[in-house]
User: What shape does this take?
Amino acid sequence: MKAIIMAGGEGSRLRPLTCNRPKPMVPVLNRPVMAYCIDLLKKHGITDIGVTLQYLPEAIKDHFGDGSEYGVRLHYFVEETPLGTAGSVKNAGDFLDETFVVISGDALTDLDLSEAVDFHRARGAVATLALTRVECPLEYGVVITGQAGQIIRFLEKPGWAEVFSDTVNTGIYVLQPEVLDYFEQGRKFDFSQDLFPTLLRENRPLYGLTLSGYWCDIGNIQQYVQAQYDALAGAVRLEIPGREAEPQLWVGENVLLDPRVELQGPVLIGDHTQIDRGARIEPFSVIGSGCLIQAGATVKRSVLWDRVFVGRNAALRGTVLCSRVQVQAGAGVYEGAVVGSDSVIKEGGTLKPEVKLWPHKLVEMGATVSESLIWGTRLSKNVFGAEGITGLVNVEITPEFAARVASAYGSTVKDGRVAVSSDAFPATAMLRKAVISGLQSGGAEVAVLGRGTLPMHRFSVRALECAGGVHVQYSTREPDKVTLVFTNPEGGNISRSQERKIENLLAREDFTRVDPARVSEADYVPAMTEAYLQHLVREANRDALRNTGLSLLLAYDEASLEAYVPALFRKLGLDAENVEGIQGGGRPRSWNELCRELPLMARSVKERQASGGAVLDANGEYLILIDDRGRVIQDDLLTALIALYTFKTRGGPVVVPVNSSQAIDALADRYRGQVVRAKTAPREYVDAVLKQDVSQFFLHFDALAALVRILSLVAEERIALSRLVDEIPDIYLTKKEIPVSWQAKGRVIRKLIEDEHAGELELTDGVKVFHQQGWALVLPDPDKPVCRVFSEGTSMEIAEELTDLYVDKIHKIIESPD
Assistant: This one.
């Protein structure tokens, strides 16, 4: 016996699920719904199957092939234009030379097909309709049969006033080939609206059989989701993929579940999916293959297709996420919302209930979407942030993306070598190799520095006289993310104009590709670590350090800095102990983790009577000091200490960010120096420092260089570190962060500038307003929908009052109409 699966449906009511796939390919329990039709036919001994196709036919052909993987033989019949249900089957007329079954490829059912076939033959019918009973028949063809099963009356999709039965047509038929003779091939013809009424009028043997069992016509999103729930609950007889690891928990192959994951069945988890500690998966959730669900995320009654990313503390509630969707940290998607394939919901974004995103959409950080988004794409032209390109490794920043952006960068570098390096971890090394390939594809000469820190990279670009460089590192502030840092010939970050060129090249896919003969070998330069250490040693006063016999307690990630810190301290004759010990794992210790050691370190420095302590971040950029009294020197106080060092040793001018304390101005007056205030963004700040003094560049952006030079000054003056810190006037600085939408940022800044009651203004970066007893700075964040308020006063109380004053001003501007 043969069968026809009608699989030409476009599924417009299922969009955005069907925007880029035919309706029969929509997954139920991680398999295309059509696969369950094939399983059902095979179960009833039907293995010779024709498949009618119209919308995106290749998607079905490519997936199912000739059917051999399913134990059947598949034959495909493609309509050039829609022919209706009967017309599509007529298109396969040469294949249908005996009694055959017709079934819809987008229905989920376990009805007994053998019973229908036996009934059909026993009645001598030309057509038998499989019927079922439903609570709401409005969306189906309603049927009344006589005692012997002959169809007496039917009506397609009636209104409530027309409903005469709760028995409906399932779209499953047993037919004789002769019924196809009632209309011409190539003519649009429908079973329910055309063929069956004709058979009824001509009094042909047209029968219906009401079958018990499960049947769901997946016609809309609600029915699609309900089909998943019903399958998990066992309402339909089918084989759930994967093994039942414990009651009502089915898992595929190579699934990684942290022991601290909370799971409540029924739940299905697809192959190669990883769920991290503290994540919570609640009943009636289906998770596809290759998904990553990070720590603290919650998934409730949701359907996730393949390769979906769910970030830390994200919340999914009764939603459907199509393939390759990213829901980033702290984002929320709520009841009835549907997210099309390849869409991204950035950190803190929210999708309100029933919102639908079509494929390739982008919800910006912190944005709330309350209406469906159909048009536009997720491509954001601005890919650079404050410190380069930062994103989730293998989610936002993949090897493919790294190679493309490196090709674009290489197209903006005219002559000379490009230095490439990464930190000490496998994921960043993977991306480093992709960057090298991208640069080579455009004909660039590449100097491979290998593993190292960003300060080492910056030093090497200058020392090797490179045209620029790319360094790949984990973010120590956002541990799940990596950053691609692009440097100019001075070792600083590239300009915003060069970033825009790269972004434009990426958007146009317009970067140089050279003839294979012009692809050059990468030049490996492994000696730069030692050259960098020698540079640090030359900048130190070795004799003074050795004679003083300083002892230090350190906290740093050894996996990242083991090639630097021990060797440097040996060369300088310093006694140092790393309180962190040897670290393992595939990523560095985060800055927050290291900072948690500060109270313990401060106590230990005092108890051991050490000369001081230091916390170094894994990328070698950030530094915190602890003096011999156990005082923590970080942020504003550290900036002032570096300024004091510069005034004492070089005289200035000193470059500091615009939000730095006026205590630095007092130091400048004392030492007859000068203060230059620069923008706070790393790129602008680096450029400002380089323009004034390369030596200051290493003080501000190289933790080891700053540490060594400050210790050298302490040793030269034969004083304790605390004595040096005592020279700095008291600092009373506060900071607050206020959520401000992207749309409101410009209005906030404008209104603050226009405020007639404002005092003296400085507009170097944001809006800085001077008051009699201090100042306040309102600074929009370039990467997040927030503004930050920095304030300094003659006392902490005044600083806090100024901060609160400007927070209140911002709230009033946001809430009031323009």
Observations:
- The longest helix spans residues 796-815.
- The two ends are 73 Å apart (CA to CA).
